[in-house]
Amino acid sequence: MIRFLRAWGLRLLVATIPLSMAAGASAEAGYPSRPIKLVAPIAPGGLTDALARVLATALGERLGQPMVVDNRAGGGGIIGMTAAARSAPDGYTLVIVYQGVASVNPVLRKDLPYDTLRDFAPIGLSGGFPLALVTKADLPATTVRELLQLARSQPGRLSYASAGDATSSHLTMELFKRRAGLDLVHVPYRGEAPALNDLLAGQVDMEFTSLTSVLPHLANPRLRVLAVSTAARSKLAPDLPTVAESGVPGFQATGWYGLMAPAGTPEAVIDRLNRALVAVLSDTAMKARLQAMGLEAFSSSPQAMRGFIVEDMAKWGKVIAETGIKVD
User: Fold this and answer.
1) Residues 263 and 282 in one domain
2) Which residues contact 186 (CB under 8 A, 6 or more apart)?
3) Is there a single domain that holds both residue 219 and residue 283?
């Protein structure tokens, strides 16, 4: 479990607000009595879709009713999130959320048709992944400290790739720049794969990208993996240091996932779903399966998830405000 998220879980999982016993017994008694829809605000394929399907299968088995993934792609996740927010708050429509749709869109887009904290009820966090700080192989820096020295000696000369404006790779590097006092040139791409390809080709100097995408390249002589972005070392690559321990104290950025329901969903139903989610993610086989996908399994209470999103919004909102990042 990633240390920052674990702290939230321990802080608030034990402080869950007591449910109304009468309302709880009535709402949960027959739930679920029919299939549950899990909205995935992305296109089929990719890590988010794969996680949604793994969780849907496992949760369906535990709850005794099928859980079916409904891909609603478009608008950077806005279409799917809006559809989920407008669904009946009865526990039969859920949505898998991630940093971009839950905590970045609300502080990035002024005309967003949904509000994460107003329109959704958290169920629980459901896993995450570190980003890796990667450089091209011939950059004369073999550690984060050496990279900091190099960049500070050549302000505005070194470049970094991202998967696009306001993506996690972009925001994480902007956070890194500000924490470390660096001046780097941003080169946005249309996705993680082309950005990594140009790094391998030596066209850009560095980037933050998902650790999963670079694990197959750890022995590749064309790139160098310096550190991971999380507060603690990753189980996926425990020999890699964190950025925080390598010269930028307090630095932390985590790609994360969670489940939410439309606001107004009965607390007893949320509690039932949370207990099922926690049980699924505590399973040893599930942890191993997610690790094979490049994810670290962890869970939280609904209250912990809400608190985490509030802090995540504040962090990325500050970065966006300071940099003037915008999207079309």
Assistant:
1) yes
2) 159, 160, 162, 170, 173
3) no
Quick one: tokens of 288? 């191993």
Would you state the pLDDT for residue 26? 55
Contact in structure between 206 and 197 (CB atoms under 8 Å): no
Q: What is the pLDDT of residue 205?
A: 98
Q: What rounded mean pLDDT belongs to the chain?
A: 92
309 lies in the same domain as 213: no
Q: Which two tokens stand for residue 241?
A: 């240091």
Q: What is the pTM of this model?
A: 0.89
Dig out the tokens for 253 from the structure: 């950025």
Would 38 be classed as within a structural domain?
yes
Q: How far is CA 206 from each of CA 92, 141, 211, 235, 241, rounded to the nearest angstrom?
A: 44, 11, 14, 23, 17
CATH code, domain with 36 = 3.40.190.150
Q: Is 328 within a domain?
A: no
Q: What is the phi/psi pair of residue 165, to 5°?
A: -60, 130
How many angstroms separate the CA atoms of 229 and 291, rounded? Answer: 17
Residue 168's H or E segment, with its range, is helix 168-180
Q: pLDDT by residue (tens digit) across 252-281? A: 999 999 999 999 999 999 999 999 999 999
Distance CA 34, CA 75 (A): 30
**Do residue 237 and residue 264 come from a single domain?**
no
Of residues 97, 119, 111, 91, the one with CA closest to residue 39: 97
User: If pLDDT is split at 50, 70 and 90, which confidence band does 97 have?
Assistant: very high
Q: Residue 177's domain spans which residues?
A: 130-246
Contact 92/77 with Cβ under 8 angstroms? no
State how many domains the chain has. Answer: 2
